[in-house]
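user: can you give me the structure for this one chain? tokens are fine.
assistant: on it. calling the predictor now.
[tool input]
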Amino acid sequence: MLSSARKRLTAGVLAVAAAAAGTLVAVTPAPEASAAGTVENVYSHAMHRSVPVKIVDGGGSRAKPTLYLLDGLRAPKNTSGWLQNTNADNFMAGKGTNVAIPFGGAGSFYTNWERRDPKLGLNKWETFLTKELPAYMKKRHNSDNRRNGIAGLSMSGTAALNLASRHPSFYKAVASYSGYPTVTMPGFGQGIQAAVMEMGGNPANMWGIWPAGQWAANDPFLTAGNLAGKRVYVSSGTGVGSKYDSSLTPGSPRFNPTKFAQMVPLEVAASTSSQLYIARLATVPGVKLTTNISPDGAHWWDYWEARFKQSWNTTFRPAFF
């Protein structure tokens, strides 16, 4: 598996940069259904503003575990892709677990930026997600702040693994769906910079000039050893067709070459990066690792929703209960 990933490394990482630099074709999200939970505004002293967070309370009077779900590169400020494109909130209702889905964070990689960015503003997401929001969840929703998990897709798959590695005493479990956890590897670093620039930000304001500054300190591949004893879930597709969307399958009557060129290369690169990371994580003692590298799969929510539900059963629920 690893040798195959290495063979695709050059093509994959170049695809990340190329695809991130372009504008994705418009995909109409599913309308938000009547859903579990409430939207609450949580003030961040670190970012000097309130952050809307969709919260599904786990119910009951006992202290509860908490699962944090992070959005993708284009995360809107007034909702989340998790709510637009999945039923994750309803799926988690009644499972005895608090769920927190913050809105916003587009292009931020959910990290603490070194400097305020003229376009993306003041980003101190690491502080918000590991200190400020957990304090709110404990006070308002009886989170125990002991059984915590975090999950993300694409940009936030990278972020979830990064936060879990940087705060191993806080998180018991983490999941990445189509993430890019090889942050400092040539090609992937350029792809991440291109993604930030696609959202109008200056990547030098995030972690400094690649590969110096704080890039290595925020590379899940390099800090994988911190996840010893944790439950970890890593998934991606290969980018070869989609069982959900025939427009991404060459030869299909509905094949859309523009959509294919913009969505599929991202998943090819995610597959390469994820498989390299899996091989690294396999050397870490005590990691309870679940992987799903499917023979098909595109860079979209239909796959991520299915993988999220799988990771609840294989990774988060066993870590919490």
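assistant: here you go. Confidence is low (pLDDT under 50) at residues 1-8, 10-15, 17-34. The first strand starts at residue 38 and ends at 44.
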